[in-house]
Amino acid sequence: MPALPTLPALPPPALPGQPLRAVDTPALVLDLDAFARNLERMQSACDRAGVQLRPHAKAHKCPDIALAQVARGAVGICCQKVSEALPFVAAGIRDLHVSNQVVGGSKLALLAALARHAHLSVCVDDARQVEALAEACATAGSRLSVLVEIDIGQGRCGVADGTAALRLVEAIDRHPQLVFRGLQAYHGGIQHLRGHGERREAAARAAQRTAAALRILQGAGVRSEVVTGGGTGSVEFDLASGVYTELQPGSYVFMDADYGRNQGAAAADGLRFEHSLFLAATVMSVAAASRAEPRVIVDAGLKSVATDSGLPLPWRDGARDGRLDYLAANDEHGIVAPAAGAGAGADALPALGEQMLLVPGHCDPTLNLYETLVTVRGGTVAGLWPVAARGHSR
Amino acid sequence: MPALPTLPALPPPALPGQPLRAVDTPALVLDLDAFARNLERMQSACDRAGVQLRPHAKAHKCPDIALAQVARGAVGICCQKVSEALPFVAAGIRDLHVSNQVVGGSKLALLAALARHAHLSVCVDDARQVEALAEACATAGSRLSVLVEIDIGQGRCGVADGTAALRLVEAIDRHPQLVFRGLQAYHGGIQHLRGHGERREAAARAAQRTAAALRILQGAGVRSEVVTGGGTGSVEFDLASGVYTELQPGSYVFMDADYGRNQGAAAADGLRFEHSLFLAATVMSVAAASRAEPRVIVDAGLKSVATDSGLPLPWRDGARDGRLDYLAANDEHGIVAPAAGAGAGADALPALGEQMLLVPGHCDPTLNLYETLVTVRGGTVAGLWPVAARGHSR
């Protein structure tokens, strides 16, 4: 019997130098020019305001992107989970803030071990978390910076006010291996308010709560070296608030369809970001293209794009393709139809085998589906960037 | 300067022999006893009806599970994408049906190469797909079985009727490297109709369309050796329809909260499946537990559980924990509150550090978030099963 041929390996989604249309789909594509402009705009805005930028790596999970952010002036990065920080430390990022509470022995041991390799800070909102951090650091022989998280209106994590924060500062100060650095004050809900005015007012209320907590700490002689928070949707208000020393936006790198629905300021303020992230999909069935409800089927569904903040938007020649809608996502199928009310008919539908680009509804969980980001410049594949922290939710 | 210590590695989520409560969260946990009962029930029902079982591996993406299904009598498995098939072929599965259209040179080359290692079949709904399959097989020196997909009401993939199917059979027959095997007739929408009666009626209409297409093929002297389709929600009707030779359910292995909302038959028919898949999460903040809207925060959000078909349901002592609701998923946070209208107050909330089990809303995209499935028997970790096809959407 002849020997069996070697089992084929899964080829990469693309090779440098290939045209974008040759990328094996579904794939996540990063437009390097738009990406670079987004990075510059955010860094410049922070520099002008004298506020430090610590971008949130939960949006991209990609060490190549973190290194590009730090190279442009970011002081470090945020991670949301301890395991998420690991590939960034391995890639050489030396200042990381875990913008979250860390509970559980395995996570605490990893955090304390990582603190021997990089400057790491973490949030607390309970005295028992402080004791557990101190114990893990004592065991590992490491030191951690600690930020007290205050709830400025989201009702998620964070102590209620400055008085409660003060009690945690006192708990932190009892442990020489823990260093109180300041406050985290983040309100995720503000980021996605659509109106520019309502975002401004909500951000102002949140900043007032942060300022009130800071006054209580100052009154007790406690200095908060860092006040960190903010996101892509509120960054213009956060920069002007006078409260934050550091901002942690993430999505500005990519812009997703959800953030795209936010209403910008009337005046151009230099803080507009561009869509740089695209889902490349291929039409794999046109059997229903000429029926009463014309549609084509693309090879990207729920497993290729997050739909929690809306379905992806068809994109063509640098703008929303208004002739088409992505109607529904099944596990591995996407249904694309002529846009309702756009006067488009079946002739607007792409052909069998044609590649479509789509703007994901929500970038963070979409990145979390992929091992690889295909970078593109001028319609040609530039390289492959590992999404090294994909799935690192522990 | 002393040498830096070695960078720690990410530890596995659990070790065999540990108690379930020691699993590092978020983690996906499989109850092996419930899992085995689900496999037995489905295989027995198919055996009784004389219908072959070809479970859909898109639900689990896990070779250990596929091997268990085949060991109990499944004729092989379904995959939804070519790349998804690869780890199953590598694990020794020898009969795989790609229940989808395959378009694109890279995918076709991989499919044709895999066909040298295992029996592979694939769907078509366009003559151009037939020509491309023939060319890929000619290049690879392999043979493929081909099924014509017919649309039985979903309006997704599949030709409209038997006459259109017949034209594709003729196209397939022109290529010696392609073998026509029969029809795929699947209607995903039926699976999630809640009422038992409406599911029965919709399945009956779909079976009638399949039977009509088969009559046209038979009239032209074409034998369909295989008629494949069906899913967990319609399997009892599909088994009794007399139309299908083979069924492709996937979710029965796990049962998710969405399928759990389907209304069963009035009479016990042996086709009830149990929840065997759980999301283990840990309470990491209780700062808001004693406020006006009491809640605790768990460490599992959008990146740890798919929410497209509803939020996960709290589970305790073998049943839905009616005192608690999982209210909302942020990227890495889950908000848990006393269940609305259940008369439960803040005292029902779990404590800081406590582990919660949750039934995922939709199993398929949830499995696609994890590298590893933690298997548990009687509250003790039994092992770790790789979710080897995770992310294999190409």
From TrEMBL, chains A, B:
Entry keyword annotation includes Lyase: yes
Membrane-crossing residue ranges in chain numbering: none
Keyword annotations from UniProtKB, A to Z: Lyase
Gene3D superfamilies, A to Z: Alanine racemase (3.20.20.10), D-serine dehydratase-like domain (2.40.37.20)
Pfam families membership: Ala_racemase_N, D-ser_dehydrat
Residue ranges of domain D-serine dehydratase-like in the record: 276-377
Keyword Lyase: yes
Origin superkingdom: Bacteria
InterPro entries from the UniProt entry: Ala_racemase_N, D-amino_acid_metab_enzyme, D-ser_dehydrat-like_dom, D-ser_dehydrat-like_sf, PLP-binding_barrel
Entry similarity comment: Belongs to the DSD1 family.
Protein name, UniProt field: Alanine racemase
